[in-house]
Amino acid sequence: MKARAFAYARPSSLAEAHAAFAGADGDASFISGGQSLVPALAMRLQAPQVLIDLSAIPEMRGVRLDGETLRIGALTRHAETLTEPLIRAHAPLLAAAAPFVAHPAIRNRGTVGGSVALADPASEFPAMMLAMGAEMEISGVDGMRRVAADDFFQDLYQTAIEPGEILVALHVPAAGPRHVCAFDEMARRRGDYAMVGGGILAERDGAVIVNPRIALFSVGPTPVRARNAEAEIAGKALDADTIAAAQRALDADIDPLDDAEIPAAMRRHLARVLLGRLLRKLETCS
Amino acid sequence: MNMMAGTVPLSLTVNGEEVARMVAPRTTLADFLRTDLELTATHVGCEMGACGACLVLLDGVPVHSCLVFAVQAQGQSVETVEGLVASGALAPLQQAFHERNALQCGFCTPGMLVNAHALIARGSVPDREEIRDAISGNYCRCTGYEAIVDAIEAAARKANGEGAE
Ligand SMILES: Cc1cc2nc3c(=O)[nH]c(=O)nc-3n(C[C@H](O)[C@H](O)[C@H](O)COP(=O)(O)OP(=O)(O)OC[C@H]3O[C@@H](n4cnc5c(N)ncnc54)[C@H](O)[C@@H]3O)c2cc1C
Ligand code: FES
Ligand code: FES
Fold first, then answer.
1. Are residues B61 and A3, on separate chains, in Cβ contact within 8 Å?
2. What are the pLDDT digits (tens) for A218-273?
3. Mind listing the domains of chain B with CATH numbers?
4. What CATH number does the domain containing A70 carry?
5. Cα distances (Å, whole numbers) of residue A154 to A144, A151, A161, B13, B27
6. How many Å apart are CA A95 and CA A151, to the nearest integer?
7. 3-state secondary structure of B144
8. Where in the sequence is the domain holding A23, given as residue range(s)?
9. CB–CB of A73/A63 below 8 Å?
10. Residues A88 and A160 grouped into a single domain
11. How many domains is chain A built from?
């Protein structure tokens, strides 16, 4: 349970980080909070020549409001999403999800960017990027590009980030008073990865739900938008019939696999129950 | 920027003292504390973030020292259970753990104390749910947790409750 020997670099700019990756001929791993990477190194699932520590890169830090968009630096720690006023006000789904992510000490160290870059299908924050309609700011040797959350999560642990690219920041359309949101998950023990989980962000016009975005996790290889369920609630008030229709529609949105612990049919059932709970507790969230 | 194999220089503050050593980058902070500095109150169980025996304060907040490489703590401040005991910071918790029989083999105790200390340092009296949340990442294979929750609750009342000194 010890990592293989590696060299260590702590670049102070994105350019230096890309140079370090190139200098290792790509046999390098980036480390942010290390809360997923260090166990992977200890178990020797990965054994890079060089560990490139991203923690000293200024562009990856801080949270600020740029007009209508909240820019969340990739190095923002899980714990900060619970305390940072700008996140609580404008990305309330992140703050609502954070208490469900791991345990307090892991939240003190793990970063939002690390979680999104890893894209564990059972993780809370990647799915919330989908629900919030975030854009990922990615740095490569040729400069910066932006990828929408809907195009970012591609397959199991596979995102739009190419080898050697760095997730620099998350750009979230700032939520305001007109928004409603809800987050919930079902796990066997507190802090465990969820059996199913999800979040909803929408606008409310009187009693009517507008532009709903529903994202679920632990229901397949990537977090997923529940587009059929969204279509059932868009433009409607959330009465019992509408909620039941959304729950029925959800079946076509998800494709869980059987695994050793949880059969696919059980995940489908839990997802329907969870969606009902989420829709019943949608409320003003910032 | 340097990119070196072998050992690299590391300087940090441990329990208030400046420490400078050469370390291999793959050395975890837990192994550095235990092996290089002989501070063995930090326990190592799973080496993968699951058991919580290895918690230390890094720049004031609890982190798993098995999930931090020592080199990542360059320039930072580490407090271990040894330091917290020496400063007297843990005395009320130690007393409460003793009185409530909140430890048996004691393997989990350092990690429990670090998390409990950080929880109480917030300044309020946590309810039992909050205490359970705070120690949700700490395994104890002996006590069944109830006595630990009791002890933390008692220490928190004493520190922060009505009539606290
Ligand atoms: C006991 C335990 C329980 C946990 N429970 C949960 C849970 O319930 N829910 C949950 O979501 N997570 C959970 N986690 C994982 C935790 O949230 C991690 O912090 C998170 O997944 C990764 O963030 P990090 O900053 O630690 O990333 P790291 O571990 O540093 O990196 C993770 C991966 O992403 C890459 N990477 C990191 N940052 C970047 C970047 N900026 N650009 C490109 N690539 C990058 C790394 O190379 C690595 O492959 C748990 C972890 C532990 C140990
Ligand atoms: S040894 Fe660090 S959590 Fe178990
Ligand atoms: S007292 Fe033995 S593990 Fe907790």
1. no
2. 999 999 999 999 999 999 999 999 999 999 999 999 999 898 889 999 999 999 99
3. 8-84 (3.10.20.30), 88-159 (1.10.150.120)
4. 3.30.465.10
5. 20, 7, 10, 43, 34
6. 23
7. coil
8. 7-53
9. yes
10. yes
11. 3
CA distance linking residue B150 with residue B147, whole number of Å: 5
Query: What is the chain B residue with the closest CA to A21?
Result: B3
Is residue A2 included in any domain, yes or no?
Answer: no
- Given pLDDT bands bounded at 50, 70 and 90, which one contains residue A44? very high
| Residues of A engaging B, defined by a Cβ cutoff of 8 Å | 1-12, 16, 20, 23, 31, 34-35, 38-39, 41-43, 50-51, 53, 55, 79, 99, 102-106, 108-109, 189-191
Nearest CA in chain B to A1: B47
pTM: 0.96
Q: Is residue A1 part of a domain?
A: no
Burial (CB count <10 Å: 0-12, 13-18, 19+), residue B6: exposed
Q: Are residues A184 and A158 located together in one domain of the fold? A: no
Domain final position from A53, A75, A91:
A53
Task: Tally Cβ neighbours within 10 Å of residue A143.
Answer: 8
Same domain, A65 and A112: yes
Give the Cα separation of A186 and A176 in Å (integer).
28
**What is the distance between the alpha carbons of residues A210 and A179, in angstroms, rounded to a whole number?**
9
CATH (domain of A27): 3.30.43.10
Question: In chain B, helix, strand, coil percent, each to 5?
Answer: 40, 15, 45
| CATH code of the domain covering residue A234 | 3.30.390.50
Full DSSP string of B35-90: IIS--TTS--SSSSSSS-TTEEEETTEEEEGGGSBGGGGTT-EEE-HHHHHHTTTT
Interface confidence: ipTM more than 0.90: yes
Q: Indicate whether A37 and A70 sit together in one domain.
A: no
Q: Is B142's C-beta closer than 6 angstroms to any atom of ligand 3?
A: yes
**Cα(B2)–Cα(B10) distance, integer angstroms:** 13
Ligand 1 nearest atom to the CA of residue A125, by list position: 11
Q: Determine, for residues A6 and B26 on separate chains, whether the beta-carbon distance falls below 8 Å.
A: yes
Tokens of A36: 């997923």
